[in-house]
Amino acid sequence: MDAVPAALVALTVVGGAYLLHLGVATLRSTRTVGAPNLSPTSDAVSPTPVSPTTAGHGFLRRGIAVSALNPKSLLFFLAFLPQFTRQSAPWPMPVQLLVLGVVWVVLAGLVYAAMGFTVQRTLAQRPHLQRGVALVAGVAMILAGVGLLGEQLVHTLTAVA
User: What ranges in the chain are assigned the alpha helix state H?
Assistant: First the structure.
């Protein structure tokens, strides 16, 4: 029973540390000469243009890593999806949850892909806006990472006391 909370703690700590890493790397990249462009192969922003054909896989890999390291996503699915299942349905409950989860991920992926494509095209035409977005994103990732790690530290300290 203690293995599940320990795994969630580990995921929270790794996820928080990864967010800090991404945030710092993004802030550092805004110092480079020229307008930064999003780079799928690094953990930050790159001053060189990115080919749309190679960009998708790197962004997808990073997005999956960030999502997988977020234990709140798992808790969301466990709290949200069961209300859309039925005991009387022909499929077993785990299969219903799996199908609902896959549908959710596919729909969210389509929305985020469309949004990402639109934002990439918009920012490519406005380098000053791109730098501002990178600064805001870097600060937001650092704050989120500090928040996750701080929250975990508080929970750990109160559990020990």
Answer: 3-29, 52-68, 71-80, 93-124, 127-160
